């Protein structure tokens, strides 16, 4: 089977482990990289400034077999993201909605200090990245973190990466809906599940939309009468505002519709096709009919 530009790096590596040596020869340390799960050969070539046709030619011409021991030694540690210096790593414990206990926060700081991290970074997905760890200490650092249920977050790959939510009625004086409760339930149901492409969700407790639901694949905006549901939003190179498909939803109604959306998307989307792209392809009216939304 010929390797083409639309195949993911992971698919190519699974098909022929020897291709890891080819990627390495181009300066692409793809082995174990979280982005390799969902990144196409074309996208990877562009990100790394590599000639796509030359890369494809060499991938298709390499003999089938195991990768070299030198390449195998470069495999990424569990739950780690290679940094710009191509030597150090970042790890990102999952914190649903950014909620963290005093004990967990202290543990994150202790781990960063113990293993000489270069920085702590609060991410846009409401997590705390421990940045600049040496490869040799990554597994030990996770061992320390997991004693307080601080497990790797799904920050890359074809999956539900994050559910972002604001304080809502739990903490905020402007909150009109329980963004924390609904956000935690969505995180529990969906965080990390395999999907045709990456997906992000968010819940905002009021129309100020601090969690930016209009630029998430699935976004809920709280109003005095319930939630407004938006679908197909994203930021990135080609931003897309989400389509409003339902208003005045109760939390159980919102969960019911989102269950249908996720299931339909899993079954009908093309590989690496974001929800908004799928909606543009099939039409919003058809999409609404398939998920039976509340109007």
TrEMBL record:
Ordered alphabetically, the record's keywords are: 4Fe-4S, Heme, Iron, Iron-sulfur, Metal-binding, Oxidoreductase
So what EC number does this one have? 1.8.-.-
Q: What is an example of a GO molecular function annotated in this UniProt entry? A: heme binding
Q: What class of enzyme is it?
A: oxidoreductase
Q: Report the residue ranges that make up the Nitrite/Sulfite reductase ferredoxin-like domain in this protein.
A: 83-146
Q: Where is the DUF1858 domain?
A: 3-55
Q: Where is the Nitrite/sulphite reductase 4Fe-4S domain?
A: 157-293
**Superkingdom, taxonomy of origin:** Bacteria
Q: Which Pfam families match?
A: DUF1858, NIR_SIR, NIR_SIR_ferr
Query: What is the protein name for this chain?
Result: Sulfite reductase, assimilatory-type
The organism of origin for this protein: Candidatus Syntrophocurvum alkaliphilum
């Amino acid at each position: 089977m010929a390797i083409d530009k639309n195949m993911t790096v992971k698919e190519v590596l699974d098909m022929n482990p020897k291709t890891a040596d080819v990627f390495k020869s181009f300066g692409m340390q793809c082995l174990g990289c979280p982005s390799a799960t969902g990144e196409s050969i074309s996208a990877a070539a562009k990100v790394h400034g590599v000639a796509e046709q030359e890369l494809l030619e060499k991938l298709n011409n390499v003999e089938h077999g195991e990768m070299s021991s030198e390449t195998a030694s470069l495999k990424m540690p569990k739950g780690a993201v290679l940094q710009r210096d191509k030597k150090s790593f970042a790890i990102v414990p999952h914190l649903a909605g950014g909620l963290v206990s005093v004990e967990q926060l202290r543990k994150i700081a202790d781990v960063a200090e113990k293993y000489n991290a270069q920085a702590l970074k609060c991410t846009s997905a409401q997590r705390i990245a421990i940045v600049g760890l040496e490869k040799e200490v990554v597994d030990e650092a996770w061992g320390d973190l997991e004693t307080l249920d601080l497990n790797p977050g799904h920050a890359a790959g074809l999956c539900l990466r994050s559910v972002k939510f604001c304080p809502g009625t739990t903490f905020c004086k402007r909150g009109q809906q329980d963004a924390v409760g609904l956000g935690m339930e969505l995180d529990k149901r969906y965080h990390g599940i395999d999907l045709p492409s990456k997906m992000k969700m968010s819940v905002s407790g009021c129309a100020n939309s601090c969690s930016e639901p209009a630029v998430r694949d699935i976004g809920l905006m709280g109003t005095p009468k319930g939630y407004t549901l938006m679908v197909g939003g994203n930021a990135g190179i080609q931003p897309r505002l989400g389509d409003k498909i339902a208003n005045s939803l109760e939390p159980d109604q919102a969960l019911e519709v989102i269950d249908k959306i996720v299931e339909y998307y899993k079954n009908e989307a093309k590989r690496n096709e974001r929800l908004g792209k799928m909606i543009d392809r099939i039409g919003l009216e058809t999409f609404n009919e398939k998920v039976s939304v509340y109007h």
